[in-house]
Amino acid sequence: MASRSSALRKSPAKSKSAPRAKAQASKTSASKAASGKAGKLPEWNLADLYPAIDAPEVARDLDRLDADCAAFEAAYKGRIAERVTAPDGGAWLAEAVRAYEAIDDLAGRLASFAGLAHAGNTVDPAISKFYGDVSERITAASIHLLFFALELNRVDDDVIERAMQVPALNHYRPWIEDLRKDKPYQLEDRVEQLFHEKSVSGYAAWNRQFDQTISALRFKVGGKELAIEPTLTLLQDRAPAKRKAAAQALAKTFKANERTFALITNTLAKDKEISDRWRGFQDIADSRHLANRVEREVVDALVASVRAAYPRLSHRYYKMKARWFGKKALPFWDRNAPLPFAATGQIGWNEAKTTILKAYGEFSPQMASIAERFFTDRWIDAPVRPGKAPGAFSHPTTPSAHPYVLMNYQGKPRDVMTLAHELGHGVHQVLAAKNGALMAPTPLTLAETASVFGEMLTFKRLLAQTKNAKQRQALLAGKVEDMINTVVRQIAFYSFERAVHTERRNGELTAQRIGEIWLSVQGESLGPAIEIKPGYETYWMYIPHFIHSPFYVYAYAFGDCLVNSLYAVYERAADGFAERYLAMLAAGGTKHYSELLAPFGLDAKDPQFWDGGLSVIEGLIAELEAMG
Predict the structure, then answer these.
(1) Within 10 A of 572 (CB to CB), how many other CB atoms are there?
(2) Top-confidence residue, 565 or 69
(3) Is 313 helix (H, G, I), strand (E, B) or coil?
(4) Among 101-110, 511-520, 565-574, where is mean pLDDT lowest?
(5) Rounded to an integer, what distance in angstroms lies between the CA atom of residue 445 and that of residue 440?
(6) Which of 271, 316, 508, 572 stands 20 to 30 A from 397 (CA)?
(7) Residue 288 CB contacts under 8 Å (≥ 6 apart), including other chains
């Protein structure tokens, strides 16, 4: 999940990875142990970035970054307003932007390596120190670059427009125009520098504290001390007793750590409020909308449509699921329980790989070819390891390198869909890389499009090759659950964040109060067929998006509804669709989402747009109801 910001205008990526001579992750004890019913699982090779955390190339590039940033400041600071009006102003500014982009690419490589190293092992002291040190070095070096965007945005619009008549500068028009959208929220240079420098000891430090705390937590289930990822996986176990035990273990450990999580949440919400107030953002989510290049009213329409659809979606589905289990209501720990008639057994890694690549290949051989490189070139880290970051992501790193995917693969059907999802991100990131470090990143409004579309392709292939009626029913139900988790759950998350950040403006929230808000929005979204029992009030604590990317979550619902509409276009008229679709991904951040959707006849500003995407989920639920 890449943000629109470049590496030089954000804290270093929260992506991460592995130790010194183990940074290549090729012959570690973990890799030898990464086998079982799911098969031997791959670990990524980070040597495409750097050989190891103590490699001389890292020290060399950090020194080079320092020098390049200082040289850039010496060459351009205080000169932009005057030089851009000269006859050769456009060419001169194009040269400056190219130099800035080269520095951004180098910083992105360093930040990505440190972040990926940390993701692979968040509890190793040497890696944590390396991650922190690199973050500080990048922040310190990039102080020399802060002037560039600030000075550029002080130039009059007509002067910039004249300069962009030069083709070399016009190439960067999308980046320049996006940069100028930030103009109303810019502060005086020294204030911007203060915000930038204090990020290391501010929100970035709290992000790091959250990561390390979550990774170090242990949950006692059946006499075993488990990390968070295998404990969460038990909520999908076939044995009801294991699901309940895991849920209670999660609640107990979260409760014991609630003061830490409440402090992190309160501090980051206050930090954001201070920043928003100084910059002049009116709404608590406006900075996210600006970064996403999406209008507030479009997001508000999405949220309103989804919330109005709760009874037709989640309430209706969970009532049906409870009936399948012979109950009127399911305890919350059974929300994602495997269906009684679902197939048993694990899905091996090779089977998952084959299924996804065939699904991608049937849609577009080019898409499959790109995805296959993640397997053959070791761009994936799949095993569950102590200290490894939970969840999954695809990190774009920087255009001069390639993306990396992190997974915690345990052979569940959802793991296959997660792999398809992250590979969709990866394909998107590879295709967009040609736009360069400044224009490859995609706004979150479209960042989830390729990932969710990849899931849909994989689901459709699995469904087509499943002949058993009950297994088809289980597959459909699994897809509906994934869609509810992507749309309903993420909009509930967004509502929760809005409530917490709004109330935080009046003072700190206790862990109990945050839990009350959590229960309120969860009760509204899940409906009466999910029984919320004691302990669930703590489950807000482990959601990383609340910490790392406030208000990110609506992008998932945006992407899912968008893909539902896109897929409907594909089913109606497949000829030429794949070419248009890949062209959309390859555009990266060079076009507004409305411009990219136009070739498909879609308009997200149309009030009916979101209802159309939601109707696809309703249709699948109706199909399940017809099966009995």
Answers:
(1) 9
(2) 69
(3) coil
(4) 565-574
(5) 14
(6) 271
(7) 444, 550, 551, 552
Supply 526's token pair: 């899940």
Higher pLDDT, 293 or 352: 352
pLDDT confidence of residue 578:
94
Residue 82: CB atoms within 10 Å: 10
Helix, strand, coil share (%) of the chain residues, nearest 5: 65, 5, 30
| pLDDT, position 270 | 97
Which is nearest to 594 in space by CA: 294, 224, 383? 294
In angstroms, the CA 335 to CA 351 distance is: 27
Taking the C-alpha atoms of residue 171 and residue 137, their distance in angstroms, rounded to an integer, is 30
How far from 543 is each of 101, 209, 234, 477, 539, CA to CA, in Å? 33, 14, 17, 24, 8
Chain segment 384-422, per-residue pLDDT in tens? 998 999 889 999 999 999 999 999 999 888 899 999 999
Spell out the residues 6+ positions from residue 400 whose beta carbon is closer than 8 angstroms to its own.
Answer: 105, 109, 437
What are 545's two structure tokens?
A: 């998006």
d(C-alpha 108, C-alpha 70), whole Å: 17
pLDDT at 108 over 90: yes
Query: How far is residue 19's CA from residue 27's CA, in Å, rounded to a whole number?
Result: 12
CB 107 within 8 A of CB 8: yes
Tokens of 129: 């120190």
> What pLDDT sits at residue 346?
83
Domain ranges of the chain: 7-200, 251-342+487-548, 349-483+554-627
Task: Note whether 109 and 185 are within 8 A (CB).
Answer: no
Q: Structure tokens of 519?
A: 């229960």
Q: pLDDT value at position 127?
A: 96
Show the tokens assigned to 346: 């694990």
Pick the CATH number of 251-342+487-548 from 1.10.1370.20, 1.20.1250.20, 3.20.20.70, 1.25.40.10: 1.10.1370.20
Which three-class secondary structure state does DSSP give residue 601? Answer: coil
Report the C-alpha gap between 407 and 374 in whole angstroms: 12
Tell me the C-alpha distance between 250 and 261, whole Å.
14
Question: What does the chain come to in residues?
Answer: 628
What mean pLDDT comes out for the span 331-360? 91
165 pLDDT above the threshold of 90? yes
Closest residue by Cα to residue 62 from 127, 137, 168: 137
**d(C-alpha 208, C-alpha 93), whole Å:** 37
Q: What is the pLDDT of residue 608?
A: 83
**CATH class in words for 349-483+554-627:** mainly alpha
